[in-house]
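Notes to self, SDR family oxidoreductase:
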Amino acid sequence: MYQRKAYAVITGGSNGFGWEFAQLCAKDGYGLVLVARNTQELERAAAELRDRYSVDVVTLSKDLFEADAAFSVYEEVKSRELPVEILINNAGQGDYGSFADTNLQRDLDLVQLNVSSVLVLTKLFLKDMLAQGHGRILQVSSLLGQIPTPLMAVYGASKAFVLKFSEALAQELEGSGVTVTVLQPGASDTDFFHKAGAEATKEYQEATLSDPADVARDGYSALMSGDSRIISGAKNKMMAVLTNLMPDSANAANMKKQMQPTDARNRPVHGDRESDGSGNA
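result:
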């Protein structure tokens, strides 16, 4: 039997940043609630975490593209009477292409996953955290959340929501015992570009990609310190400073160049685009 203690709820918890967050939480003795679509991947991750860290791991196979899924996650956690101390809203995806040409349903799905599910889970778990007088929430945004992102317009806009939403909550919650931290990774070596159909871009093939483990450590450290915002990596911090000095029109033009296709093939593809899981850039 596992010792009962506080739990961390992690969306997109079976791979990428989510897998790294899960290990960090488990190492500190938190029980885990991992949320993702792929049951097989969830059970594989759960078995490894139980074996390695001797913590309780609850798996919830939920598709956060669906409007009722975030509510269902919360209801199942409550029905199990799990004491939640940490919520990590990690799951997120993008889609590559001109907005006029991308699929409208896919656009709406991205808003559901990247915005609506984050809002719902934050609202519901936050109320419980406030009632208990303590808790920590980590929201995974993106460096792209602070600049216009041509050819991934919906993704960039959705991450801008997460960024500004989280910064506002951090101020609202000062002195409450509950903290909200927003993490801004840059381009990282997850399956994000694969799921977005953006593996042929300069940004993926030619840029230096961050290690997901390093990004997760930065985010987790900031979460546990109660920081309101963290940009992961020295290079990305510098990029954030530079983009703040430039007009949005210039940032958009630079980003559009980075999102153009390239003949370089420095990195392999990750397999079937329709595989499960979530990633962020």
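- The chain has one domain: 7-258.
- Residues 20 and 213 are 6 Å apart (CA to CA).
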